[in-house]
TrEMBL record:
This is ABC transporter ATP-binding protein. Residues 8-243 form the ABC transporter domain. SUPFAM superfamilies: P-loop containing nucleoside triphosphate hydrolases. Keywords: ATP-binding, Cell inner membrane, Cell membrane, Membrane, Nucleotide-binding, Translocase, Transport. The lineage of its organism: Bacteria, Bacillati, Actinomycetota, Actinomycetes, Micrococcales.
Amino acid sequence: MAPGGGAVSGLSAHVVVRRPELTVDVGIDVAEGQTVAVMGPSGAGKSTLLGALAGLVPLTEGEVAVDGQVVERTRGSRIRLAPMHRGIVLLGQDPRLFPHLSARENVAFGPRAGGMARAAARAQADAWLERVGLADAGDRRPAHLSGGQQQRVAVARALAASPRAVLLDEPLVALDPVTAGDIRAMLAEQLAHTTVVAVTHDAVDAAALADRLVVIEAGEVRQSGAVADVLGHPATGFVAAIAGLNRVEGIADRGAWAREDVRLVAADAASRRLASADGRALAAVFRPAAVRVGAAAAPGGWVARVDRLESTPAGVRVHAGWCVADVDAAAAAGLRPGASVPMSLDPADVRFIPASAAAARLGA
């Protein structure tokens, strides 16, 4: 239920923040115990959204409610609770632990601030440290903890304060892949029954942590829904790019997807049904890693001109016309901008989804 519509558990907000360089205008509803991931490019307004929910960034317009309590409202009887009175905690890339306190004392800080007796707060802190896998680290100060351990302490400190909602601002981005994977699994377990808004640039994080996904661009929502629906059926090329997918519009033509002189077929029944209606606007969706580059001509193959090459941690990303392909360094040997290269896709790696009617202009 939107803000102002009555008591509701969870987090409900309409955030409008106007700045000279960007206006953020986003509505978001998170049911109690649900995790909603927010994805978008740098500068899209993701951190501004979290800052507004936390009370760190004033609303220009709108309203924020937590568990039915309005904590900020700009119209009528204006309300603006300070961040510490909202029951919302924000976890970012920097754990922001108190350097002079031990891990136990950091975690006990919230309960102590809430009036809990020292002994009880320390006991609760030890219980939380055990839950995040740091049962033996209670006496250690942050300087003697690894980055991953500091993030675990930060999570324990946040949850020990019994927040009504938790905001995550890419807390894994500064960690190495192995540690990030461990912390991701820990977050999924410990936040399972907590109301969470998680900003991420990584579709893996969204799939692992969230029930729903909101994609924003230039301060506005482009698509929202269940994570699998958004990642599997991106509504626009922008959403597909955020999800790490190719989404290419064409038309259905005799059981295939067609664009110019290229025809693709898909193996799954749902895609075949969509492609059976000649002239229907279709989008072909596939992962860059599924594209075979330099393979001999085959069904589902075409020849593309290389526009540019981009180094990636796993190899090389090839930008060629309407397609992006990820290949290893060996497969990229000899490729250069301007060269023509065969490409192909296995039907098992392609699926078709409905596209806008305007896509018919792109078809064969």
